[in-house]
C-alpha cells in the first residue's frame, strides 16, 4: 500500500495532500529536466511498468476507510516521472471518483507535454485541479532545460495546452494552474518572461506559480534569488502569480500607503496574497482593502490553498 500512495503531507499551495504515485518503482518520464530531483534517466514516450487500476483503487479506498478522521484536502496524482504517461488514467479516475469522500479535490501534477493527445485530455477532464509546467517557449532553451523525448515538439505542446485549456474551462468548474521553474542563466531573461507572459495571458489560468530550485537537482543547475524571481514575475500583469518564498527585502521595506484608486489599479495589474499585502502595505491601506472587500469592490479568489485579492469581476 505504502509504495502506491504517500503522505499525507501539508502542502502550502494545496492544503493536506495524499499523494498517488503512478510510477512508484522507477522513473518513467518523457522529460529529463535539469532541475529534476530524481536521478537522470533515459526519456521514454510510454510507461514500461504499469500498475493495474484495481490496485490503486483498492489502496486508496482502503486508506480512507482505515483513516476516517485524517484531514485530507486533495488527492494528488503524480509519478516518478510524468503521470499522464499512465495508460489507464481515464479508467482509474472514472472508477475511483464516485467513491471518494465528496469534499476531497483531485489534483494532477503534469509537465503539460501530452495535452495534444485526445485520450490524455479526456482523462484530465476528470480532475478538479490541473497543474502543468511550461518553462520556456524558446526551442533551444526548452531543449536545454526540459530535455524532452524526441517524439515531442514545442509547437505541439503549446497547441495542446491551448486546446485543453479551452475544453477544461468549457466543460468543468475546475482550476487550471501553470508553473514556471527558473534556472539562472537559462530561462530567466526578460525576453523569456515576455514570451511566456504573452502566451499564458491567453490561457484561463486560475493561478501561475513561479519558482526556482529548492531541492538538490540530479543535474548541474543554479537557482535564482528571491529578488530575481520577483523581477521576472513583474511581466505577468493581471495574473494571480504565486511565488513560494517572499524576499527578506520585501518584508523589511517601507510599507506603502495607497489611495482607493491606486489600490484597485495595483490589484488589477497583479492580484496579491494576504502575505503579499502584509509585506507591501501599511495598516491604513490594509484597512482600506478590508473596507473595499466588504463593499464587494475587491474580492478574494481561492485557488487551491491560496487566496488572491483582486478587483471584483462584474
What do we call the CATH topology of the largest domain?
A: TIM Barrel
What ranges have pLDDT less than 50 throughout 5 or more consecutive residues? 247-251
The number of helical elements comes to 11
Distance between the termini: 48 Å
* Portion in beta strands: 15-25%
Mean pLDDT, to the nearest integer, reads 89
Largest sheet: 8 strands, mixed
Count of beta strands: 11
Topology as a string of helices (H) and strands (E): EEHEHEHEHHEHEHEHHEHHEE
Morphology: globular
| CATH architectural label of the largest domain | Alpha-Beta Barrel
Strand order of the biggest β-sheet: 1-2-3-4-5-6-7-8
What is the CATH C-level name of the largest domain? Alpha Beta
**Number of separate structural domains:** 2
Helix content: 25-40%
Write the layout of secondary structure elements.
Elements: E1 5-11, E2 15-21, H1 53-66, E3 74-78, H2 89-96, E4 105-110, H3 118-124, E5 129-133, H4 139-146, H5 154-171, E6 175-182, H6 190-200, E7 207-212, H7 226-233, E8 241-242, H8 248-252, H9 260-269, E9 272-273, H10 274-280, H11 283-294, E10 298-303, E11 306-311
Parallel strand pairs: 2-3, 3-4, 4-5, 5-6, 6-7, 7-8
Antiparallel strand pairs: 1-2, 9-11, 10-11
Helix pairs in contact: 1-2, 2-3
List its salient traits.
3-stranded antiparallel beta sheet; alpha/beta; Arc Repressor Mutant, subunit A; TIM Barrel; 11 helices; 2 domains; 8-stranded mixed beta sheet; 314 residues
Task: Please tell me about this protein's structure.
This protein is an alpha/beta fold and 314 residues long. The chain has two domains: 241 residues, TIM Barrel, CATH 3.20.20; 61 residues, Orthogonal Bundle (Arc Repressor Mutant, subunit A). Helices cover 34% and strands 19% of the residues. The protein has eleven helices and eleven strands. Strands 1-2-3-4-5-6-7-8 form an eight-stranded mixed β-sheet. Helix 1 packs parallel to helix 2 and helix 2 packs parallel to helix 3. About 2% of the residues have low confidence.
